Hints:
Elements: H1 4-17, E1 22-30, E2 33-40, E3 45-49, E4 54-61, E5 63-67, E6 73-75, E7 79-81, E8 87-91, E9 95-102
Antiparallel strand pairs: 1-2, 2-9, 3-8, 4-7, 4-9, 5-6, 5-8
Amino acid sequence: xxxxxxxxTAQLGAARAASNGRSAKLIVHDGVLRQSVIALVAGTELxxxxxxxxxxxxxxQGRVRVTGFDEPxxxxxxxxxxxxxxxxxxxxxxxxxxxxxxxxxxxxxxA
Length: 111
């Protein structure tokens, strides 16, 4: 079992040392479920990308803006369901968040 606070501290340290200002660690990979701890230094952005079938973002430390739709600003302790539209995540200050995604959904034929 991972200590998320210790992991957040470690990922933020790695992001601060990285030339691209970010660091991520996949902590849960169970079927279609994924959870990653992602750290971004202030001003760093995860570029615009398509959303998976379902996703949420929980801010563990800092403040981030989710761009591409109504552009909410999320701060420590806040969680948001991510839109099904293209979006990006911008760190307004050094930040760490838990990204939970579902990578596929069953279809009518069971696939």
